[in-house]
Amino acid sequence: MRTILLTIAYDGTDYYGWQIQPDLPTVQGEIEKALHRVTGKEIHINGTGRTDRGVHAYGQCATFRIGDGIPTDRIAYALNNSLPGGIRIVSAEEKPEGFHARFDAKGKTYRYRLLLCGPHEDADGAPQAQRQLLYLRNYVYQVNRPLDLAAMRKAAAAMEGTHDFACFQAAGGEERETTVRTVYRVELTERCLEEGFFPEEESAHVLDIDVTGDGFLYNMVRIMAGTLVDVGSGRIGAADVPAVIESADREKAGHTAPPQGLYLMRVYFEEDFGHGEE
Amino acid sequence: MRTILLTIAYDGTDYYGWQIQPDLPTVQGEIEKALHRVTGKEIHINGTGRTDRGVHAYGQCATFRIGDGIPTDRIAYALNNSLPGGIRIVSAEEKPEGFHARFDAKGKTYRYRLLLCGPHEDADGAPQAQRQLLYLRNYVYQVNRPLDLAAMRKAAAAMEGTHDFACFQAAGGEERETTVRTVYRVELTERCLEEGFFPEEESAHVLDIDVTGDGFLYNMVRIMAGTLVDVGSGRIGAADVPAVIESADREKAGHTAPPQGLYLMRVYFEEDFGHGEE
Predict the structure, then answer these.
(1) Taking the alpha carbons of A241, A54, B263, B101 in that order, is the dihedral positive or negative?
(2) Under an 8 Å CB criterion, which residues of B touch A?
(3) Per-residue confidence (pLDDT) for residue B175, from 0 to 100
(4) CATH number of the structural domain spanning residue B256
(5) Number of helices and strands (H, E) in chain B?
(6) B52 given a catalytic annotation
(7) Is the pTM of this model over 0.90?
């Protein structure tokens, strides 16, 4: 038996999240169906992160075991021919026996993407911002208030490090042994989209919040992003963020930013840290 | 009674075209439902063009009649609050009694959008182009062959003017009195997307084919776009396009480009030609 690691990109708009569910389209379900069409076998895959409905990925990972048959270097091509256009296998590689996309993951990077729009009105008083989001509505969290980026960067720095992140955990996830996690980096990058694909991108500003950590609690990145937006709009003081974390109280943190702004960018394994021993 | 002209933008991905159909989501159906929610009345709207399933619009038009009640300058705002995010009312304006979005239209501009990608393979031999189209797959026609733009521009010029365009008409549309139409302009604009919203836009080339005419036969723009792609890839000679039109034979023209690359950009009425007499 070979152990195969898939790297997967997907547009989460049309899926009820990663995890397989009866009678609902999910990313895991579509990939297992495609594996069945390609190999004729029922193959179960283990994903690194169970992304929620509407959340996207550029670098989700999953492992499965497979016997003889399709060569490893044809798996991505064969699956892509069988998968819907919104799910793409970026690569498939063989790993040592027992390698597991979830248990062997050492960390992940998520991106949370904001679209910063001023509150505009057209001649009729109708908010122009509504039109702006026609084509990007499923891929970004639109914020119509001015945001104080310096305050957000200060708050982001306070979120880095090893903390009990219970304040950034939503109810409803799996039970965890501990709510202590290490956030290696929270990086804010703003850029202006000069001439994009859609007219709505013209003169829009994108603010990406890239969060890298060793693990994440349920909805943690979305609550971090919502908290940063609340800091940027003055609802929460940047200087208060350490106390919010200290409190371990979900009520003291900011709102949960919506799923469509979230992208699972990359999963890190032992060898990504440069001291693998395969 | 007031006569109201709506200008409408929509993402056609989730709709079975413009025209209302029982039990299927359509753009006209969603707008009539929203009008009912906003006014409490059953109001029928007349659209300018019956776009097909998957076709988009930035400037579709539609008219309807309405009595007292909601002020004209609040209609767009009220409808947008009631419509799904993929349909946006750009404007609502009062027109003279009897004005009709379809019968008073003097012309339209459609855009057909191609994404030009070289045939790339990654290290595993899997076509990279498949990944590139994850997020733009519903908004563009991806072409992986090199295209001869000079030949396409020559063919485009041959499509301009007043001709019997029966060769560019698909079966299945409404019956028309004549297949003679005037195409005022076919313009090709290529541009490179430097740093777009999605990574797949990086270094992609967009080729827009903008077609303005007094009227269009069923699938005419999609067949014109497919014919131009066939000219660009050498399947049809640019010098043969006048004879293709002359033949009035659908079999001699090129393939029908897929719906997701097509956008209804603008509808022209009498006053847009500068000699209105309202």
Answers:
(1) negative
(2) 9-11, 58, 73-74, 76-77, 80, 85-86, 88-92, 122, 124-127, 130-131, 133-137, 139-140, 191, 193-199, 201, 206
(3) 76
(4) 3.30.70.660
(5) 6, 10
(6) yes
(7) no
